[in-house]
Amino acid sequence: MLSVWSIALRLEPRDEYMHELGPEPGFNESMYVNVVDPDGALGGFLRLGNRANEGIGEMTACLYLPDGPVAFMFRRPAVTTNDALDAGGLGFEVVEPFAELRVAYSGPVLLLDDPWRLLDPKTAFAEGPVVDAEVRLTCGGLSTPFGGEPDRPAEPAGEEFARGHYEQLVAVTGTVGVGEDRWEVRGFGLRDHSWGPRSWQAPWYYRWLTGNAGEGFGFMGSHIARRESDGLRSGFVWEDGRLHPCHDVRVRTVREGPGRSPEELEVVLSSTDRTWRLTGSVLRLVPLRNRRRPPGGGEPLVTRICEGLTRWQLEDGRVGYGISEYLDQMEGDLPVGAGRD
Known about the structure:
mainly beta; 2% helix
């Protein structure tokens, strides 16, 4: 697999907007944003992906509510064009490229005292309870964007996860309303935009770790492993008003949660001249799944994606919060990456 450091990346303000729908059956264009308040009490993420050639979208809203349940919704709304990211009650609006993004969700959410109920989503949604939610967020760019579209393919045909992809740390303000409760949001997070063919079954497993300690420090660390190789490790650290690209990301995971889910993390990010070490504790975790039949039929392939609200601590004692995303293909009841990091 090619290294991200051997490929030239293009990123322009026009990439903030929609891209031409490609011919690939699995073409996906998506935006995502996460946010956590500075005290870690309120957090969550919102994502919408257009899969217009399949006629569907993928909409996810996940809110970790203060001293309460997780509010969650997943929908596959009808999407037949790639003109906008606005479906299933969720919409993304670019106000100014890399400076201001507005996100709004209006629709139902399932309240989960035990998020592991989502391993049987049909039963979980049938049993409820379901209430209405209203989310209005404004995301202001903090860091320089990281990523872009490569000058040549970085992934084998049929194993693509994104052709173009960039991320940016953001300051987030707005409101979250769930049922009769309402909270003001003044937190920090990360936004993400990607386009091109996507298969959730392409990575053997991946770790995507994000966090902010106020507006002056934030990071993203990624390890995308392939069945036949270690895959790709990359990330960045934002500190002292400067983006530090990281050529290596190492993750050590303590898995003592249900289903070998992550509980404690140690992360090392390395740039050309510096190293950052962080420890993370997963405070609340939501297990999601994706099922897809392989080409030619057969038993569905099952992918599990654990979304963890995470408390991060740096070596100098600074504390921040973010989201840890662990994707694993499943072999029976076990994630394939367990014991590998």
